[in-house]
Amino acid sequence: MEDIYWILQADKVYRFLQNNKRLDGRKFDEYRKAVIVRDFSKNADGSAYVKLGKTEVIAGVKLDLGQPYPDTPDEGGLSTGAELLPTASPEWEAGPPDPQSIELARVVDRCIRESKGIDMKSLCIREGELCYVIYLDFYVTNYDGNLFDACSLAGTAALMNTKVPKVENDKIVKGEYIGKLKFTKKPLLTTFVKLKNYILLDPSLEEDKILDARLHVATTEDGKICAFQKGGSGSFTPKEIESCVELALKKSKELRSLL
Amino acid sequence: MRVDGRKNDELRKIKFEVGVLSRADGSCYVEWGQNKIIAAVYGPRELLPKHLANPYRATVRYTYRMATFSVPDRKSPKPGRREIEISKVSAEALEKAIFLEKYPNTAIDVSVQIFDSNASTRVAALSAAACALADAGIAMRDLVSAVSVGRANGEYVLDLRKEEEDAPDAVDLAMAILPNTEEVVLFQMDGIITKEECSRLLKLGLKGCKMVYELQKKALKEKYMREV
């Protein structure tokens, strides 16, 4: 049963949009306030807490040992997961990852991986045999829209302060580090949603719940695009995609300045 | 020159065949280069469990699965995260094409299975699924036509093969449109590009999708020729 609450909210959101306004008073291309708290978890090898509007996520990194993939025998690995915690929304329950959390984790993973910002070769210990694997996990503790940008900001912030643990006799030495993870490019996602014919940056909860389509543009510090993802059952015209790309390159700088 | 001798804006050999299964409400088999994919549609039918049904419109459920032997290394039969993500975005892409509001409370189930693969399977599967939906007689505003475009070894190419996806500078963009309005309903990319390259790939993708659209239409018409 579609929640009647969101149907009523949709009426309100569209009434505002007709007057070129958003419910929270923002411009169509305006980010909410973002805050980063680094080193959130002492036990993690890298971590960050991010608040974007009232959306709150915690990203944590642990490095473990593993075997390199056969097609990249001289590189380390990256594995990304996301949990939509029951604390974050009444609709979410504990349990195995559902398509929503899998998409979230995979899109953020793609943004970071495809930027080529992580020096994967530096994570190889013995070619074809032993390497570091970066486990990057997101916990969404409060859902107020736009999980994608919040997670990518938290993930990049966490990787930027990740330390690489020491390895002795093919085992990780707890609490001892050999240096910082080599991570550049500051990749970030910029999310747009389409509601009827309105395109909005950084969707709030209401906008997220009633969107027709969304577009995530991953950009890097040097002004390149490194990934796209379109979601939702609506569509974008090629022109709209081009203008979102333009805006993403501009607006991502605002979030990046916090890193 | 590309690995298989194609021009940069040339598709592999593609053959759709519509109405190939006897039990499904609609079906389509596609051979797309080395890719061999079958798509079946059931519905609109009752959505169970009932509390998941949407009283305003139909729900599209799409399952994209690869056979264990369809890739160089055996794939685990368990659905992977990649398959789940592709299924989700493909369902959303098809929803735009269907008059969902005509079928409240129902499910439209689309099942696609990959038996042999060589890159661009998600777009081949989606294009076949659109034909199967049309074959099932489901009311649609348009077909969905999909291709991959990208960059490989400095060239901008249509319909990437595995070797091209693995090029050192590879960019892989999967896109699908409603061919009559050019609305983009699927858009996924890996790889680093500039704003200008993005526009260029979009243009090549639109052209490719329209080429696929012609093949889809031809296959749908052929089915009815066969039946007469």
CATH names the topology of chain A as Ribosomal Protein S5, domain 2
The DSSP helix count of chain B reads 4
Number of strands of chain B: 9
Strand content of chain B: 25-35%
CATH-defined fold name of chain B: Ribosomal Protein S5, domain 2
Family (chain A): Belongs to the RNase PH family. Rrp42 subfamily.
Subunit structure (chain A): Component of the archaeal exosome complex. Forms a hexameric ring-like arrangement composed of 3 Rrp41-Rrp42 heterodimers. The hexameric ring associates with a trimer of Rrp4 and/or Csl4 subunits.
Keywords (chain A): Cytoplasm, Exosome
GO molecular function, one term (chain A): mRNA 3'-UTR AU-rich region binding
Q: What's the SSE blueprint?
A:
The complex is a heterodimer of chains A (259) and B (228).
Chain A (H helix, E strand, L loop, with lengths): L3 H15 L15 E5 L7 E7 L2 E12 L10 E8 L14 H16 L9 E3 L3 E13 L4 H14 L2 E6 L2 E10 L7 E8 L2 E4 L3 H6 L2 E7 L5 E7 L6 H19 L3
Parallel strand pairs in A: 4-6
Antiparallel strand pairs in A: 1-2, 2-3, 3-6, 5-6, 7-8, 9-10, 9-11, 11-12
Helix pairs in contact in A: 2-3
Chain B lengths: L13 E5 L7 E7 L2 E12 L12 E8 L14 H15 L10 E11 L4 H15 L9 E8 L2 E4 L3 H4 L5 E8 L4 E11 L1 H33 L1
Parallel strand pairs in B: 4-5
Antiparallel strand pairs in B: 1-2, 2-3, 3-5, 6-7, 6-8, 8-9
Structure overview:
The complex is a heterodimer of chains A (259) and B (228). Chain A has one domain (4-256): Ribosomal Protein S5, domain 2. Chain A contains five helices and twelve strands. Chain A has helices at residues 4-18, 99-114, 147-160, 205-210, 238-256; strands spanning 34-38, 46-52, 55-66, 77-84, 124-126, 130-142, 163-168, 171-180, 188-195, 198-201, 213-219, 225-231. In chain A, a hairpin with a 2-residue loop joins strand 2 (46-52) and strand 3 (55-66). Chain B is α+β, with helices and mostly antiparallel strands and 228 residues long. Chain B is built from four helices and nine strands, in the order ββββαβαββαββα. Chain B has helices at residues 81-95, 121-135, 162-165, 195-227; strands at residues 14-18, 26-32, 35-46, 59-66, 106-116, 145-152, 155-158, 171-178, 183-193. The longest helix of chain B has 33 residues, at 195-227. The model of chain B has no long low-confidence stretch (mean pLDDT 95). Chain A binds chain B through residues 1-2, 70, 97, 99-100, 102-103, 105-106, 110, 114-116, 215, 220, 223-238, 241-242, 245-246, 249, and chain B through 51, 54-56, 73, 81-82, 84-85, 87-89, 91-93, 95-96, 173, 178, 182-195, 198-199, 202-203, 206.
